[in-house]
Amino acid sequence: MTSSLTQSDKRGVAGDRVFSALTVSAGVLILLTLAFVALFLTVNSRDAVYQEDQGGWILTAFLDYAYPLVIGTLIASFIALILAAPVAVGVALYISHYAPPRLSKGIGYVIDLLAAIPSVVYGAWGMSFLGPALIPIYGWLHENLGFIPLFAGDPSQTGRTIFTAGVVLGVMILPIITSVCREIFIQTPKLHEEAALALGATRWEMIKMSVFPFARAGIISGIMLGLGRALGETMAVALVLSPGMLTASLISSGNSTIPAEIALGFPEAPPGSERQAQLIAIGLVLFLITLLVNMTARWIVSRHKEFSGAN
Amino acid sequence: MSKRVDAVDLNVYYGDFLAVEGINISIDARAVTAFIGPSGCGKTTFLRSLNRMHEVLPGARVKGQLLLDGEDIYDPGVDPVTVRTQVGMVFQRPNPFPTMTIRENVLAGYKLNGARLSKSQSEEIVETSLRSANLWNEVKDRLDRPGSGLSGGQQQRLCIARTIAVKPDVILMDEPCSALDPISTLAIEDLIGELQQDYTVIIVTHNMQQAARVSQKTAFFNIAGTGKPGKLIEYNDTTAIFNTPQEKSTEDYVSGRFG
Fold first, then answer.
1. Count of structural domains, chain B
2. pTM here?
3. Does B148 touch chain A if contact means CB atoms closer than 8 Å?
4. Distance of residue B219 Cα from the nearest chain A Cα, in angstroms
């Protein structure tokens, strides 16, 4: 029996189904890709921690190999963040709230252009220009602040240090953080900005009262996106850094990062060898670090949900 | 506290567009003055020029004089930030700071002035301001909850509490009840009646009954047509505007024949 209630717009229903199937499969595809990456890394890194002829588990040997690289990666990314985040937030604020409208568009384009430069170009620039340019600064730091372990040790004569790599990474992640922050700053409700202004806030006070609280989650997301890129960046670091042993000094040559180690080591590792498994295993470690960083970011963002302005 | 407001030949522009033309008006202290008129007639624009919020928009500017107890707020030496601490504003939609608690919202103005308050002082300011806004009894047990968790009417009263906490001379209200239900509206209207004892209150409203209920004086604004500037047509005691208007267009508007 058909009544007016059971009859429906057939074409509309079909469209709805197709679209929902599309979105579900897109979502599943992402999860599958991720799962396969994790599976591939895990399976192939088995040889790095288990060798029959060396008496079974060799976890300590692997950890001894991996921890300097982990620390090097974190140091380089941390330097990049410290340098890039404040500048990025400042540039984004200038574009969204200070610059005259016509100028702000232009600056936005230029910043986005920075993201379009291939990382190998950054690497070449860091190696042949920035590194040598920083040599005198390293010398000065060593002479005047040498008592701090960070600036102890012989300053590098080529400038190809972990600090230079961090600076290059900082420039590379600047556009990502800037564009995320700019987008979110622009979306600050006029209502909240005017609430602050009407109470007698100066522009900077208005930004502190309305823009930053509103954008807090967005700023953190932007920084985490930047950090993700810094952690995984390969070419630039491989070119800039002359890798070596782990050292506390930022201005001596030495240290290395996981992506650079993989990029430099992989072509020379025989397929199926322990060395290859080792490189894949540190890849897995990087994967886990990135995962951890992202989850921490989510957690930070969700902690203040009640006060986020979303309700 | 509580200052009179006089506009002298005031023109308000958005870029080259003249939005409001030739306003001359004297607004009494310790009284409620209502601005009424059809949409787009410039009453909100004029209201926003009274605390220099108008110029927040790019290209917006004002010509003429606007006197706060005889002092021109558009004098080149005057900082708009100072003006806004003396002329508070309540907006059309309630806008408590979403990341702040109820307490922090009330104290937001003090925080801006850089005032150092002792705990007891700030407690007292929070309580008196919320009491004056008729909100104290509803929120006294949850001062540390976010202001955005309140109902729309409560949020609007929180915004009023935030505005009166810093003891301004004039309070501007831009259709403060248009987003509220009738009961919340009634609460705000009662509150406006009480505020008038201490403050100069200027309210823009689309609701003519509201203007009749809360105000002593009413100003009727109108435009000749789209793209023409808004003008002040008639300004008088509220009873006179609603019962014996002098201008034909005022009579048409208040009797509901247009607009």
1. 1
2. 0.81
3. yes
4. 23
